[in-house]
Amino acid sequence: MRHTASLPALSCLLAALLFGASTPFSKVLLSSVGPLTLAGLLYLGAAVAVLPASLRGGSAELRRDRRQQSLLGLAVLFGGGIGPVLLLFGLRAAPAASVSLWLNAETVATALLAWGLFHEHLDRRTWVAAGLVLLGGVLLAAPDGAAGLRTGSLVALACVCWGLDNNLTALVSGFTPAQTTAVKGLVAGSVNLALGMILEGGVQSVGPLGVALLVGALSYGLSIMLYISAAQQLGATRSQLIFSTSPFMGMALAWTLFDEPVHPAQVGAAAFMMMGLYFMLTARHEHQHAHEALFHTHSHRHDDGHHNHVHAGLPAWVRHTHPHRHEPATHAHPHLPDLHHRHKH
After folding, report:
1. Which residue, 167, 149, 156, is CA-closest to 101?
2. How open is the CA angle 169-28-46, to the nearest 5 degrees?
3. Which helix (H) or strand (E) segment is 25 a member of?
4. What is the 3-state secondary structure of 141-196?
5. Distances in Å between the alpha carbon of 227 and those of 18, 19, 296, 314?
6. Of 59, 108, 240, 296, which is most buried with the most CB atoms under 10 A?
7. Domain ranges in the chain?
């Protein structure tokens, strides 16, 4: 059986490029907007962007499930509420290019949490990849001493929050990616904006307000929706490794568009992180495994060996979404830790 991962991988890469552009633009916006206020505007912009697509699809039955609601609630808290605020506080104290590269710590956090808490298999190549990414982060922090350590710690904590978010949203099956993004944007955006109005005085001019909403719509809304769709098909760790290319987009924009100087540590860190990405993407996993009965909804096709139900007139390779059931099965094939493969081995 052939496992087709090209389309979700491309979706994840586009999500990475969009999100990577947010870091240097957010750095500029922080000169006139506080971190809490900016976090709120970015996520409200995200919600507005995906709201039309969120009005359809998913499963009303699964959305009423307590476990699905808990998964989404925790993802909103860590990924939409705490994570972006920590990032923006860190971004105020460091060059955008360095913070962009530090964001690759999210890959390490996602992988460790996926292995420790969410039952994803990680082989030796994946562990080597995580180590190389971590080494790149240490290389970035070293030249700035204690200041670099403080900023790196804030960004690292943000990455842990997003690591939890990545693993949680990869398991959400009652909500479509657009619905998950809309809920995250509306709830987290409203709370952070309200706190920003109280503690920071809000936004003083219309220009930054419009730019922040636009950056949020593209770099958070569209990006998150594409990422969640990919993570449900590739697993949290693999999709996060593709997504880890986003910092290089931010770094390139910081160097070119915003005239930040190029530091040797940034170049060296980029090399380590690219090597880590190579090791992760060349890993292979195959063994005999058993599936229990399952009812969920997600984007799928009928030529992957797991979805054998038939729709009259629909070719097997066409991807579509609806609630469906799986009967118990045991088989062996190359696989990724998607919604059907959450085991350790």
Report:
1. 156
2. 30
3. helix 22-29
4. HHHHHHHHHHHHHHHHHHHHHHHHHHHHHCCCCCCCHHHHHHHHHHHHHHHHHHHH
5. 11, 10, 19, 26
6. 240
7. 6-287
Q: Are 136 and 270 in contact, with CB atoms under 8 Å apart? A: yes
pLDDT at residue 144 in the model: 56
Asked whether the predicted pLDDT for residue 343 surpasses 50, the reply is no
pLDDT per position as a tens digit, 248-276? 777 777 788 777 787 887 788 778 877 87
Most confident residue range from 158-172, 208-222, 238-252, 321-335: 208-222
The closest of 47, 23, 28, 342 to 221, measured between CA atoms, is 47
As given in the structure block, the two tokens for residue 283 are 């890993």
Chain centroid offset of residue 62 CA: 23
| CA–CA separation, 273 and 140 (whole Å) | 11
pLDDT digits over 41-63, tens only? 999 999 999 999 888 887 777 78
Sign of CA dihedral 247, 249, 250, 255: positive
Residue 134 Ramachandran class (φ > 0 left, ψ -120 to 50 alpha, else beta): alpha
Is the model more confident about 212 or about 132? 212
Beta strands in the chain (DSSP E): 286-291, 294-300, 320-326, 329-334
> Would strands 329-334 and 294-300 be described as parallel, antiparallel, or unpaired?
unpaired
DSSP for residue 216: I
